[in-house]
Amino acid sequence: MDERRKIIVVSNRGPVTFRLGANGAREASRGGGGLVTALASLAARHSVTWIASAMSSEDIAVAREAGFEAVEETAFDGSTYRLRLVVHDPSAYNLFYRVVANPTLWFLQHYLFDLARGSFTERDLEQAWNAGYIPVNEAFAAAVLAELERDPEAVVFFHDYHLYLAPRLVRAKRPQARLSHFVHIPWPQSDYWHILPDRVRTSIHDGLLANDVVGFHTDRWRKSFLRSAQEIVGAEYDAPSSTLVYGGRQTLVTARPISVDIAEFEGLKTHPKVLEHGRAIAQNRPEQLVLRVDRTDPSKNIVRGFRAFELLLESYPELHERVGMLALLDPSRQEIPEYAAYLTAIKEEAKRINDRFRRGSWSPIDLQIHDDFHQSVAAFKQYDVLLVNAIFDGLNLVAKEAPLVNERNGVLVLSENTGAYEEIGRYSIPINPFDIRGQAEAIHEALTMDERERERRIVGLREYVSAHDIEQWISAQLSDLDDAR
User: Fewer CB within 10 Å of terminal CB in the chain, N or C?
Assistant: First the structure.
């Protein structure tokens, strides 16, 4: 393991969120989202200060009690870290999150923007950019600068699409700071960025190029960034060093797919809550179980996945009452109209299919909408087929997590547009996420695959993930930052 380093992690969501319990006492719960899950074990390896937005009213209370400084926190694995919660003006944060970050940047970067019918007025986006995205990034940059004042030798790890401007703001005040920015979602081709006003797309690329390192999960996204940075802001690409030269600085651009904490998932297999959920799933499961675990995000392609399962049942009636789909979905961003509408579509589609095929006590789709990590792990242990059919995905950690604990030699059906496909596609049955019949046939192939081949695939997948775990990813990030200097 690397020497213990001083790291400032900066992300919109933090590793923990606070609320008042039924007895009026403050309670801490694990922060949501794939990024937090992936980085949760960072504090066990390094001296971490984590800067994040204060999300709940109790988060704000914690920040105020600390005088808006960092507080010492204990992670769920027992390690300690410093947490600095940034309190934003509510109206600014609303514009930042609900207009710019989601859905504009998220939809654009997942190729979800409706080019024929979708629109925004440039004036409204400019207002949200000026009064929301910029002030929130300024607040994050101020917090980073305060922490660098405390410890100038710390390295700074920015994360994701919420913080594209913050690195430039920090660089202006701290020219020698060591800055890295990891983008966890897809990076679309250069032409797609022209949906945005010139000033916005230019500022995004300019902000990222203030870093010493910019990282992506796959070579596919890395190449797209290299191209767009050259075309949009005129950066020069130096192929031998994989760097972009811009504004008198060099930025190393890497592809480093994130992974999971193997030890954490080993321990989770026998967690009492996982075992409890496992008994309930085993009691109600059909002979063969198709599983999907997702957020209710349009990019996850849940409706098409349900239609593919419907087509499977239509094409292979011998599977009726023998196979079922368990869909464990975390309700995501319901304050944003597009997400609320998509959740409605998910419910309606599941009901329509169940009404069509239901027989006695058998309903083909068991749709459960809530966030329960331990239930998800319990389901990971029991699937025969894991369906990951995202339209586009930066990586998709479920495709790596679930096989680690599965006990049935489950088969992964994986979208070719996920970042994970670049790494572990050879152990999966690949699918085109837009081809419903292709997905139905892939599920059928997985359900009927012989046991020897099922075992070969999942063993290979586990060996790969175990050899490329979260510790290796963190080490690679630090090495890249050192190499860039």
Answer: N
- At position 267, the amino acid (one-letter code) is G
Handedness of CA 264, 266, 271, 276 (dihedral sign): positive
196 and 320 together in one domain: no
Model confidence over 307-336: pLDDT tens digits?
999 999 999 999 999 999 999 999 988 888
Task: Measure Cα distances from 177 to 69, 94, 182, 227, 412 in Å.
Answer: 21, 30, 16, 26, 42
For 11-39, b/e burial (b = at least 16 CB within 10 A) is bbbbbbbbeeeeeeeeebeebbbbbbbbb
Same domain, 214 and 303: no
477 and 432 together in one domain: no
Q: Which residue has the tokens 């292709």?
A: 438
Overall domain count for the chain:
2
Q: Which distant-in-sequence residues (6+ apart) come within 8 Å of 442 by Cβ? A: 413, 429, 430, 431
The answer to whether residues 250 and 335 belong to one domain is no
pLDDT at 398 over 60: yes
Residue 252 has pLDDT above 90, yes or no: yes
Based on the domain organization, do 398 and 333 belong to the same domain?
yes
Residue 38 has pLDDT above 70, yes or no: no
Quick one: which of 432, 458, 300 has its CA closest to 380? 458
At 43, the pLDDT band (50, 70, 90 cuts) reads: confident
User: What is the DSSP pairing of strand 365-369 with strand 411-415?
Assistant: unpaired
Closest CA to 29 of 405, 372, 330: 372
Are the beta carbons of 9 and 159 closer than 8 angstroms? yes
List, in sequence order, every residue forming a beta bridge with 414; answer none if it has no partner.
388, 430
Q: What's the Rg (C-alpha) of the chain?
A: 23
Are 366 and 473 contained in the same domain?
no
Determine the 3-state secondary structure of 247 from DSSP: coil
φ, ψ of residue 109 in degrees (nearest 5): -75, -15
Residues 373 and 317 in one domain: yes
Beta bridge partners, 140, equal: none
Predicted confidence at residue 42, as pLDDT, reads 77
- Could you give the CA distance from residue 1 to residue 474 in angstroms, rounded to a whole number? 10
Sequence-separated (6 or more) residues with CB below 8 Å from residue 318: none
Q: Are residues 40 and 128 in the same domain?
A: yes
pLDDT tens-digit readout, 6-25: 999 999 999 888 998 888 88
The CATH number given to whatever domain includes residue 476 is 3.40.50.2000
Rounded to two decimals, the pTM is 0.94
**How many alpha carbons lie under 13 Å from residue 184 in its C-beta half-sphere?**
20
Whole domain around residue 243: which residue ranges?
Answer: 1-259+469-485
Structure tokens at 226: 């290299």
Q: What is the sign, positive or negative, of the torsion defined by CA atoms of 28, 76, 368, 395?
A: positive
